[in-house]
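Students often ask why we bother predicting the structure of a whole assembly rather than each chain alone. The short answer is interfaces. A chain on its own may look different once its partners are present, and contacts between molecules only exist in the joint model. In this exercise we take two input lines together and write out one structure for the complete complex. Read the inputs first and try to guess which parts will touch.
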Amino acid sequence: MTLIAHELRLLLRSRMAALALLLVALLSCAAVVAGMAEIDRQRDVIARIQPKQAQDIASIAQWVDKEKDAGSAAYYSFHATWDTPAPLAFAALGLRDVAPYILRVRALGLEAQLYDGEAFNPELALPGRFDFAFVLVYLTPLFVIALFHDLVSGEREAARLRMLDALAGSGRHLWARRVGLRGGLLFLALALPLSIGAILSHVPVGQLLAVLGLVALYLAFWIGVTLLIGRMRWSSVANAATLAGLWLVLTLVLPTIAHVAINRVIPVGQGVEISLAQREAVNRAWDIPREDTMRAFYANHPEWKDSPPLTAAFHYKWYLAFHQVGDESVAKKVADYRNAIESRDAAAHAIGWLLPSVGVQSLLTRLADTDMQAQLAYQDRIRAFHKRLRNFYYGYLFTDKPFGKADFDKAPKFEG
Amino acid sequence: MSAVSLIARDELRLMRRNRVAVIAFALLVLLTLAAALISWSHQRSIAETRARFQAQASEAFEAQPDRHPHRMVHYGNFIFRPLGPLAAFDPGVDAFTGNSMFLEGHRQNSANFGDVRQSSLLVRFGQLTPAFVLQVIAPLLLIFLGYGAVARERERGTLRQMLAQGVSARALILGKLLALALVAALVGQPAMIAFLLIAGQPGALAGPMLVIALGYAAYLALWAIITILVSALVRRGRDALLALLALWAVLVILVPRVAPDVASQAHALPTRLETDIAIAHDLHKLGDSHNPNDPFFTAFKERTLRQYGVTRIEDLPVNYKGLLAVEGEKLTSRLFDDYANRSFAVQRAQSGLNDGFGVVSPAIALRRLSMAAAGTDLEGHRRFLTQAEAYRYDMVQRLNRLQADAVSYANDTASDAGADQRKRISAGHWHEIPPFRFKSADAADLVKASVPGLGLLLGWLILAGLALLPVARHLQKARS
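Now the answer. The structure tokens for the assembled complex follow.
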């Protein structure tokens, strides 16, 4: 114990080591605070829209109530959906700054609504956000390099190495103690702010432990690399330069090359093709016999096929039917598009096994539920909600049931 | 002066002998060339795809059958943001913004299908472009090659010897700087080859290209000076390397990430949902088209009737429903413009605050200059959005006027079995609506937009250059 205390005193007497540890702790704190502020803001926005949304529906209810036409209610009512951030989201903001976490949909064709974006400043999204994942993935290795590159070579250059090696019984224990101490302090500097943030955000203990394990592993990787380079018996300067070069290649150069490669190998048939095809299908309905549309609709929705036939007058059930038929006509394209995005995502995860920087980032965003999978899951929830919405309005339209003020409250509610 | 060139020549010879330095330099050159080629072919394929989609969408629009004009208002049109040639050098925010937009009546849709939402998480690690290589990686190479330039002489004691032999510290620093600046110029060369590729394309503008070349030259020169400065100030080579690496990590990696967070917390942007609700609310306040007794629409009706000297809507020589559509679109569009301007004012404030960090980080200043000159910044995207809205408005109003002039009010309000056919007008009308043509910014605008970034960079350069003087004086004292 006294030996450790002694080593600690030695370590902290080096101005650079103390400064580096302090900086890591500060950066980690700042990243946790910034991440939590951003997630708080997103939660606030989600809370803020609820009364506005209710007000919007109330004003529509007021005039729809006069004619009690379920079609007008379906056409004019937009329903809010939102993607509540997971407790751990503050640690890795992932895609939450560029993909919408709030989307309004109505019972018309979903494929024309699902891909709408949120208003955001792309110049701010371009460099990426400052969150714990960034501090861990990009900055921590640099501090590892700063603290470990001269572990042995520094003693050699100070001409103490032979003496240290000659000390009876110390040998290996000494280096293990030093590595353990530096690594442990670095881990604490990262883990303490994160754990405090996680406890404040009610992150489940298991998840926090998983993240801490990830932090430890990533640290261990970089410490291992640094020690390996240290074994080459080069000078401290050569160690530092080589390690910085390795860091550059592993966190900046190879991921960007992998990105280009993935997007080349797995082409995503442009999403806009879905929009173009769906729009053709929907608008064509005005130029073909309406019975054709209804037949196509009833084929997939037989529960409504006993609805009274259309007359010459406009009826919203036909309108909603052709929107749905339009959506169904592009189902294959939608599935292809999604599969391609998922394969790109899977390829990136696979690369994570080779590139620790990518691996840690992808695992963190997975745990934080802010990655592509989380985005797709949100889209699935929107799809399910849209289905409930449609069925709700169909219940009125296909039975010609009047839709009064009270019926607005019966509409399905999205569960974040 | 010969002392300066002698020292520079000596330094360069030393670098040439350093195998690691030569390999690192060769790798960077290869990386830049690869980035240039990849980026160029990527930009070409994007430009082609978008042009193809644009042609397909325009064709589909013109191929629509006889229809009621209002159906065409809802059929709408798709437009695509073309990608300028300089995007091959610096694609800026292109991957982060949607690049296609659906234009229809009464609604203003978002630009959709940006790359960032259909790529893997790797897109957030940065994109391999010549701009990225020069902004982020090239300074590191200069640091590796230059950190020991002066510190090494000091460590080995050769500094004292040289000073004693009458070489002035100023000549020493200038010589070392000259050598590193030459390397910097060589590092920038491959990117200039990329420029030559781009210059061959139609639409490449000489002015902005010159500004970009100037900006990157200033940026690399700045890093050469910073490297020599630190090398001259710090006692040991290792400390110089660590200090420079720390400086690089803060200026190039950390600050550009922190700045956007500060900007987005300082200026909150309303969500689309809130904007949509606010527009609907404002519209409702202006006039309620669902209410037959609404004062605004009653006044409009009376004004129209008076204008044509009739007493009943049915007697108007034009279709009243078409006029109403024109008026309605006018109201909504005004609100769209109003809210879009507000949103952009917030975004501009955010970007302004973000750019302000260019005082702290030259990388931010360079990025601003680079994107602005390439026309791939927020303003470039806004240019597209503004033209899209103008086109949308023009298209919708042309169709609304067609409804007023070419469809009779009696037919438009009829609901008998044959009414649907009588409401339709000839498909020839769709050809009269001109296709969307994006007007890219002209050279003068791009150059003007890049001036603030260039100014900041030159300020940095001058400041760093001036800092060399006291450092040289300090070094001279090392003699005693």
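Check your guess against this: Residues 193 and 300 of chain B are 62 Å apart (CA to CA).
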